[in-house]
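User: two proteins, same treatment. go.

Assistant:
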Amino acid sequence: MIKNLHILFISSWYPSKIHPTNGNFVKDLATCIATKHDVSVLFAIGDFKQPEKYVVDLFEENNVKTVIVYFRKHASKTINFYRKLRALTIGLSHINTFDLIHCNVVNPMGIVAYLLSVLKRKPFIITAHWSGFLSESNYENSFFQKLFSKISIKKAQYVIPVSKRLKNAMIYKGYKGNYNVIGNVVATQLFTPQKNSNPLFEIVHVSNFSNEQKNINGILNVVKKLSEESTGFIFKIVGDGDLNSLKKQVSFFKIPSKNIKIIGTQTPKGIAKVLQNAHLYISFSNFETFGIVMAEALASGTPVITTNTGILTELKQEKYITIIPVNDEKRLLKEIVFHINHRPIFNGVEMHKKITENFSCNTISNAYSNVYRKSIINYSS
């Protein structure tokens, strides 16, 4: 295996002072890759409130050199596009020569990765995460977004969807490329099974509260019905979405306060603690490309109920994974009631091992190292 490559990460999403949790999974991947290679991250984002035209933020975290360039955002998309390119150029001047460009999230940075590849004569790969490629999503790319995405996907040495479902969706929509599926990285050293002696049955859901994707209304309706059948539980809903809007939804469904707790943005350690203390994790999404919290829950020894979406549907099915149809509230209620009444005991060590074998940093970084090696060899030949 080639060692000590310098990988340039560029991404459409990345945590910043504007959006502290946006693209956390990209940051996690960069941190993971940095255990085997040198990694620099280049990211540009606009800020309407910024008086200066450009501000460069340089720092190193977990062996990842990070260059975030903030530009003064404008009402004009054309001006913003120019300023973003200019910001990336400024940021690039702070980064040493690299061996390969690793683009995360196809749109809009995919075409930038391709142009940079041509300019610097370096290979590039793309990791695809975006749920907008799925047929279940109502999102429609513009003509130019589709065009630029198709060009960048076709020109990349490899395109890495995080699940088979996403790969198949991209191919179905006409995005031709050299595909190789590699999942998201799970911090298995953080998400570990712990002894749970909590007498009150805890159900947990973690997301951004997007009703279109996560079906929050469906979850709350089930929790309301559950509260009419059983009082011996608490539902914890955790995330970085609009808390005020969520509180209004909870009020609308008239869920008793003793049965629900709303928790805002958490650090990874905070999420790990919530999952470790839970008896059950639920995902009721309409669509998912991966669904990383489901994998984190299993790594923590917590069983999962999920709709037929996300990465758990692509793993060998076990008793601690319950898959139900999308939007089937009756089935979700039935399965939750079963867990509350019977409190099935599962082997947390076995659950953790399953996620470690598939999505630990060592597994994912080895897979990417192989892709990097092949990309460089193919590009040079």
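Protein 2:
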Amino acid sequence: MTDAMRVTPLGVSQQLVADLLSQQSSISQLEEQISTGYKVNQPSDNPAATTAIMRLQASSTRFNQYVSNAGDALGWLGTANNVSNGVLTQLNQVEQLTLSATSAQTNGQSALDALAQQVLAVRSNLLELANTTYNNQPIFSGTANVTAAYDATGTYLGGGPVATRTVAPGVSVAVGVTGPAMFGTGATGLLSNVPGSLGVLAQIASDLQSGNISAVEGTDLSNLQNAVDVVQNQAGIIGAAYRQAQTFQQEATSNLSSLSGELATLQDTNMTQAITELKLRQSSYQAGLWATAQVGQLSLVSFLG
């Protein structure tokens, strides 16, 4: 056998040591994977997988935000929807009161005054509904930084457009409508009780108190019905926005679930497989230690011989 082909004990020993170091590294990596629950714990573990994981994590963060934004929009819109239903119920009561003015007149002015008080009570209820808040923010105040959308006279304190929430890439949903859009303004609005610019409800009450039944059943009733139409239209807008937010939340949740599955495939440790492989590596390492020790003894015998 030539020198080039001769395998020396030293060469075998060096190879065994290199194998042991490799086994040791693999065991440490497996132990870390089992401990953390992740296959990739630093970029050097798998550079390609690391890049993919970072991309998926960034996408997951975005879709998590979309889910959260849509949920917030649903909270705002659900509150606005409840308010619009309440407003319509109150206005239907006023319509019935208005239609009963003629028959009430037969009982004298006191009966009309009683109707007027009921109408003013409805106005107070609507003012309270108009100042409804969600997360301590008035839902009808637009983007204005105010604590109430309306003051006691029915004057609008809000301003700016309706707030929106981004629920998908390039898609925003309005989280309600503004106060003027829902309740109107001035003489054709529902809330004002400012002299010279009485809103629909205050005007009805005023005409009842003055016994002006023709105005109550004519102009006043017409203005009331127009106001009802406006509220119904805004309620439809709120309902459509609610359904849109709901759809996009479902889509974002579905996308998030898919991303989570992809991340788990790339990142999560298969515990059964990892534990089995760790045991095999540990057995192999122990065998390598024994083999290295035997080669060391042979080298010593050869040296002494």
